[in-house]
Amino acid sequence: MARSRSPLAHDKVLRAALDLFGERGIDAASMDAIAQHSGVSKATIYNHWPDKEALLMEVMIMIHGLDREREDIDTGDLQRDLTTVLTRRPPDQFDEARARMTPSLIAYSAVHPEFGKAWRHRVMDPPRDGIRSILRRGIQRRLLPGNLDLDASVALLLGPVLYDHIFNKDGRVKPPDIGPTAAAAFCRAFLNSAKAAHKKK
Prior knowledge:
Number of domains: 2
Order of helices and strands: HHHHHHHHH
Number of helices: 9
């Protein structure tokens, strides 16, 4: 018979792990220390997570808001739908925690490439899937060219957002969100080309 899982214990361990990963670094935060900090036994912790990497993954999912249900956006306005995906942001309540965790996560991912790969997929798959779904609808509705390269289109849309995330972190006044600009530029290029192609037929 499977042992019951206490939601309270689960949350206590997540919060303790978040604190220790940020303070000590991921490698230095042992499961013993997490158990002591949370007041939850190691046996109970291992009933919730098979190992520290599984716990780390859930902590990262929590602070980046990836545990929230992502609705399938379809307002009928392709540019607005793309903008919604490109401007989604993680929960404000974890801003400080993400700032503390990021250097440790980068270092850990470099030493543990399989975890790094799994984390990158977990972060990038939802927006990629969301954009592909919107673009497929645009093709079906003849708003976009039928031969549109979906992978290249996703790269064109996400590229500016990733660039902004990487290079605009120097503490200056934050520039306007680049997501709406990327969505508008994409739609100017491809909605117009779709209209021109239909007119020729």
